[in-house]
Amino acid sequence: MSQSGALQQINLKGRDFLELDDYSTEEIQYLIDLAIEIKRKHKNGEVYQPLKRKTLGLIFEKSSTRTRVSFEVGMYQLGGHALFLSKNDIQLGRGEPISDMAQVMSRYLDGIMIRTFGHDNVVELAHYASVPVINGLSDLAHPCQVLADYQTLYEQKGKLKGLKLAYIGDGNNMAHSLLIGGAKLGVHVSIASPAGYEPDPSVVAACREIAKQTGSEIVITQSPQEAVKDADAIYTDVWASMGFEEEQKERELAFADFQVNEELVQLAKPDYLFLHCLPAHRGEEVSAGVIDGPNSVIFDEAENRLHAQKALLVALLG
């Protein structure tokens, strides 16, 4: 769908959402288009509640501000109900097996969102659950965030195919999902990471295979300058993600030359967009002048978590 065209329905009901590589280019674009349409309805004050009497369980082994609030508010706005379950309520891998928990929760709920450490937890939960499972974040992937990221780029630039996105920093779950989403959507993705912190080679290889079909270019480099040159968008993340806090000092040394600052962004296109999944550490991975500057769209991006996830919920549960 173009931003002015009619939304063509694609049936995704009952599907899991574990990573973007499980979805086709057309399906990802449909979710983005649906998110934009749902956002339009919300901004116009339209009541849109296709998920009345639907319930979503939210399993949090890793804490989060944006993920919890956006999913809870999203379900409420769609007419449904979200149930928050912290790591103290459900202890993955201890006591009750994931297989039992998945089958029991499937009899209570219409869908499950899980935010956890090991990606294998997400996969096992989805295997045994008979309701859709959404990956709210794992150590391997962060597809919900990236769906909102590409929605933001699409809204701001009017297209995705042919854009260049530069990601500077740790080759973590954000880098993986940005690579997969970019490869699927025809976005050229350049990742600049210090030696030893590159993205998973198997993810990179898979994305290069996808890119052969979509025309996307995948570049992995240790040069932030190479990655950022002529970029339409620049993305970064914290140097020490949750679970790696004990490596903070070590990572500060390794990433010292990988800060996104006023000097680096001069190499991008003048109308580049700056994105960050938040929370951000000003003065570490990004300078205050960049993240709070006129090219930054971090709060539009954060808002789009709500709309992108509402689109997911409608598509999978509606």
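^ that was protein a. below is b, sequence first then the tokens
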Amino acid sequence: MISVQAWSDAQRLWDFQQMHHEPRPCSVGIGLGSHDVGVADVTVDLYRRGMMPLIVFTGATSRTTRERMPKGEAEHYRERAMELGVPAHAVLVEPNARNTGENVRFSRSLLAEHGVNVSSVLLVSKPYEERRAYATACKLWPEVEIVSASAPMTFTEYVDSIQDSRLVLDMLVGAQQRLLIYPEQGFMIRQEIPESVMAAYERLCVDGFTSRLVPAP
């Protein structure tokens, strides 16, 4: 049973992870692979709205997706886009990335191989990983403008859609931890984190929502 305080703390992390960018036309859209096929749906919707002429789906598999997406996250996203009517020529697949840094670096290399000139990227992620994805892309691809996007859902709506509240809270805590430790490791830019967000994160850790934390060195 998840306590009222834990729900409140998770909501605070959710709100902080939102970048609140207004989608605008970009050179390319990059859908970051995960357990959430909704990322593919959002990317397709943005494509239909004329926000980008080309989509890259990036991602291998993880312990969360190994069984449900055996072909790899990016390939399952591509299949979903095809089902929704996106033409094959408008989608590139990057099947090897196993973390957000690799998502960015491998997608960048793939686009360079295809001769795509990139000045801006519409970066599509899960709602609670917008800030993490943005900070990573800004560090690894500083010469392009990064515009963050995700499903326009409330925290409650997202938990209902995933149907695994424990997983969502664990993922939120993991995303927040990476904002704290990855700048020092050179993986992302540093961002100011409000004290209230830090307090919420620390309480959730104490409550045991730690399965997605990076182990201490």
